[in-house]
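## retry 2 of 3
previous attempt timed out at serialization; input unchanged, resubmitting
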Amino acid sequence: MIIERALTIYLKWKYARILQLTEFEDLAPPTPVPGREYLVYIHIPFCEELCPYCSFNRVPLQEDLARDYFKALNEEIRIYADLGFQFRSVYVGGGTPTVLPDEIARLLGILRDTFPVKEISLETNPNHLTDEIVPLLKDGGVNRLSVGVQSFDDSLLQRMDRYHKYGSGREIRERLEKYLGVFDTLNVDMIFNFPGQTLKMIDSDLDVIRELEADQATFYPLMVSDATRKELAERFGPISYRQEQVLYTRIAERLEGEYDAATAWCFSRRKSMIDEYIVDYDEFSERERIQYDFMMKLFGTTLDVAEAEKKHGGKFLRSLRKEIAFFRSIGALVSENGVLRLTRKGRYMWVIMMREFFTGVNNFRDICRVRVDSATRIDT
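## retry succeeded, writing output
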């Protein structure tokens, strides 16, 4: 646990240094690189109610505001089409993208009419698994539907303020069973290391996942900004990273054999679409871009060294010799036929890296909110 704790401390410092607010006088959208394929991420920030542990960009649903937002999205899609982008993959996240079913159906139609879209992944919540909404998503071209379940344990759902919104664990399971097979991939989003969550609760959740034979299950560690962490600790108790490692180990052990590790925290029964996070427009140094590529490629559990060397002009291994040597020395990384591969221990290391990356992003978002609020007060 000493190595894991040291990695957490280092990454907190690293991401706080990198994720800084920069002033832009004129920020124009990027232009596509010829021959490169792009995935577009579309964020729908509205939720019917806000969960207390969530630090991501979300706001309570106001229908008029949400419809204006969808209108702006449609206009922005046209901007990127005019620039020459040809998106083949689409990921729609939130928030809750399905809060206004007619709007999400219209958005999906515009995307498919505008770009050569081959695959669409979209997030939703259990209460939107209905005979009215699911056909709209299927007809809209959704291949992978990701359902935010978090847990099937009723006591935990109540503590998360989700029970009254989405029903009991049994009711959620029944909704999932009804729509298994409708989409190419039905992913079940779960959470681990919520304060008070036990091995028994995780085992029960894993029993349900395996009995359902869900196409895919993603187990996210609790990822909160510093501000949300304080609120969460006051209400539910402190977050234990020692417990996080114990729970992750149990998840990996029990899913092994039936599921493959598509990423460090995503487990698939077969080759499936997965959610990818790609940064291609931020201003990083060359070494930071190489480090970012190292982190993101291995998040998918393997990295082709020859491809990485070609992409970075022969500087990849030379730039990362210390990092690679460290992870190999602790048994987190192995090399096989020109491919770097994470071990189970390594996958947990990458869970830590991604957890701290998103924590850093959440902290950055909180800083931006404070700046915007301050500017608004000055203007008024």
